[in-house]
Automatic annotation (TrEMBL):
Pfam families: RicinB_lectin_2. It comes from Agaricus bisporus. InterPro entries: Ricin_B-like_lectins (IPR035992), Ricin_B_lectin (IPR000772). Residues 12-78 form the Ricin B lectin domain. SUPFAM superfamilies: Ricin B-like lectins (SSF50370). This is Putative mannanase. It comes from the Eukaryota.
Amino acid sequence: PPRAGSSEVVSGQSHRITNVKAGNALDLSGVDDRSIIGHPYHGGMNQQWTFTWEGDAWSIRSVSSSKHLGIDGNPNNG
């Protein structure tokens, strides 16, 4: 599988996703267990993501809830 970002991503292992510029980690909000926010890294399971190579794309799943990361709306609008 291809590499994602500046670190090697290993399929089936959990990783954190960090905005290098802001220093925040991708965080599954505990408010609704649905929203994704940027939050300082604290190592919680809601900031850990399992990457799985699906043959032609990465699947990204939250360690805390097993929900997959997705994008709302039309995938063709840019």
